[in-house]
Amino acid sequence: MTAARLDQTRPEASISGRTVELATLVGAVAERHRLVVVEGEAGVGKTRLLRELLRDPAIAAHTVLEAHCLPVRTTHPYGAIVEMLAGAVDELRAVGPTLAPITGALAPLLPELRGLLPEHQAPLSPSVARHQVLRAVAAVLEALDRPLLVLDNLQWADEETLDLVRFLAVSPRSAVTVVTLYRGDEINTNDLLEAYRGRGHAMTQLELAPLTVPGVAEFLREYHGCADFAAELHRRSAGLPLVVEELVRELGDHPTSARLDEIGVPARVRDAVVERLTHLGRSATAVCRAVAVFGQPATEADIAALSGLSDRGMTAALEGALRARMLHETARGHYDLRHPLAARAVYEAIPGPRRREMHLRAIKRLSGSARPGLALLAHHYRHADELDRWVECVLAAAQEAADTGVPAAGMRILENALDDAELPVSAKEAVALRLSREMLQGIATPATIDRLRTVVRDWPLPRDVGAEIRMNLGLVLVNQVGQVVAGQREIERALTDLPRRRTVRARGMATLALPQVGFVPVATNLRWLAQAEQACAGTTDSEAIAALRANRITVRMQIADPGAWQVIDTLPAAPVAPSLRRQLGRTHLNMADAAVWNGHFGPARHHLDAAAELVDDRSAPYLSSLAAGTELRLLAATGPWDGLAEKADRLVAAVGQMGYLAADALLVLGWLRTWRSRSSDALRTLQSATEAAPGHVPIVVTAHAGRAAILSARGQVTGARAEAEAGLELVRQKDNWVWAAELAPVATEVFLQTGRAPEAAALLAEFRRGIQGRDAPLAAAAELVCAALLAQHRGGHTEAMALFAEAAERYRALPHRRAAARATELSGLCAAEAGDPAAAVRDLTAAEADYAALTATTDALRCRKALRRHDPRRPTRGRRGYGNALSPREKAIAKFAASGLTNREIAELLTLSRRTVECHVANIMRKLDVSSRTSLGGLLD
Fold first, then answer.
1. CATH number, domain 19-207, options 3.40.50.300, 3.30.310.50, 3.40.309.10, 3.90.1170.50
2. Where do the coiled-coil regions begin and end (predicted)?
3. 3-state secondary structure of 537
4. Which of 75, 353, 452, 714 could form a disulfide with 158 if both were Cys (CB 3.0 to 4.6 A apart)?
5. Is residue 815 reached through a cis peptide bond, with omega within 30 degrees of 0 on the bond before it?
């Protein structure tokens, strides 16, 4: 039974991340340890652990009495114990007749229990009275059935209560288990612990540490079923369960990492921090305030400069703040508050005039250093109300961020300034213009774009400044967001307002010249390129020249101009200037992107590697995301596919709101799901790729091809034809047939399926004309497939077989492994129709092996079924035992399982039942002594 219950009105999460500690406590109580001590800092979850302990079924046999020590200024003798006994009337009434006479000594403390307690004569002296009370409480506890005394927040206990705990340690008759919870930074319990140890009593001492990242992840999963931002939540909370819970509660029903920035300091967290400050003393509080104002980990000298404490006083105060765990040492000689919310709570508790004075001290301190951090200096100028100097520092900090290759940091500084209501009107123009320039190198979020749209729409700006901001906004809409039509409209509007800004005009025209984005014909793109060349003629701006060169080569590569390679060979070595390195890196990246679409996979890898040497995630996150997408498409063609889906998923997650940068990854995921028997998922994913980049012509065309192929395989020919025709309409609109390499064979097959052979023949002729004279080996191989399909339809199976075989060789030379396997499969089917079973079995067997090596389950299963039709006498062998070694079948299944295939996919690939595969996987894991499928990869040859 339980004498008193904790307040259950507040909804709580479970004991996430504390299962080991809870089991330790339950075991200690079950084994009748005399003392169980739980120590930990404020907010670490001691009381929560206590509540879970008392809920455990193993505690039900105990009579639980709880005492809660309170942080009151004036304590009363035995205050918590008196409240505990006053709440245990029912338990005391049950044992009243058996209470020893000494228990009457409690009557003066508990008048409401006077009728239940024996008569007792007043003691002769205060010391005797005190001893009698100790004996009386012990006697009451001994009268109860398996008593369990719980003392929470022992650091606030009065001395008499502590004496009681000591008395229970030395009393030979005491059978009470005492659970105490306290903050080790606010109380010294060494003498208490020694009293128990000295009597030889069994005791358990447990120190609660903050949650680890996995512990926070467990908490998130229990609250919301996901743990996507556990690491960020851990960073902001230092793993303290109180802070974790309050943050998650503030996030509501749809928590995301981005929403954490919108949350202030939760009330319970603020109250807990302020309460701890009140116990620190003036000097230690001054140290914490100095660190909060400084805004980053501070040295002792920094803290002394802001707090105004003397060396001796500052050292003692710093030690006190560390002992109280308000501060922690982040690196040798640097100190910070426990977590960001604690820093905000301490900062907000400082009176305004005092804060301003401390910011001025911080400015003086930073200005005296050799290289003051401009962003931090800007922060202090702002909060010291030195607004002109603040603006100067903001612009200088943004330039410093750009020069050091971290444009995202500069963008954050500028955006914060633009959002500040105190930004002087005279400075808004300069800050907005700088932000529009910096976002070209970083990744512009929707919020950034909305800010600049407001600027060009609502702010009274000089004509040329407004036009340049509009130009940069248009470039981002085209290149990063995928709003091609809107972006091109902004660029064209900006061009009319920039008659004398030649290099800025040239940059906009060069963007309009890129064939890959937008729906105007290639001829229009080429006219824009000529105008850009003219606008840039005679300029000495090296960055503008590099940018124009990048777009010039990109245009030629995107239309598969054979002469582009000669221009590429003249590219310079890596320059020193960061801006020129970015432009050269962009050139190589654009080359790689176009080379993959055209089928030059070897050069594509070379240019990706060259780009990686010139740009990185910090200096050009936008370019790095594009490089990652291009590499995914390259690996989908050339292999290997191991981990490819995971890489694509990571890119989709990394780009977040900027879905345009996820289009390549979504396209690859759509292909993989098609090839692995997940056609419904594939249809949705390919549609997502189109929606992510609706103005990116090759992606949209290729997505139409993928959807048409899926619907055709399902027999949904009407839908397949609609997809194929939509893709062909785009290709004709652009007049760039090299992007039809995936679509043309699918469209030809669909037309033939629907009885439209003349249209299929006309498509082949149009495709041939479109790629004639173009350096596009992928399209050239696709043209052979289209011709073979038409020959097969006419009944020319031998001719078709030869064309398919030639296409397979061309695909293999690229190498495009899946396309080569498909052409080989079609060659085998034509051989069977031509009456050449040996060639049919040869080609189908080769295609099945190639598909299986790629883990293309749908394709491999189709070949296996065809082989059963055309080679019914396939030999079989008797089985033999392999002991603890893997059989050939088990080795094959282990390889597929390690690659991430499900049991169902493996079953379809190998034409087995799912139950058979499950048995094989269980045997494999037993033989290799592993507990998870992810562990198989490292154990296989």
1. 3.40.50.300
2. none
3. coil
4. 75
5. yes
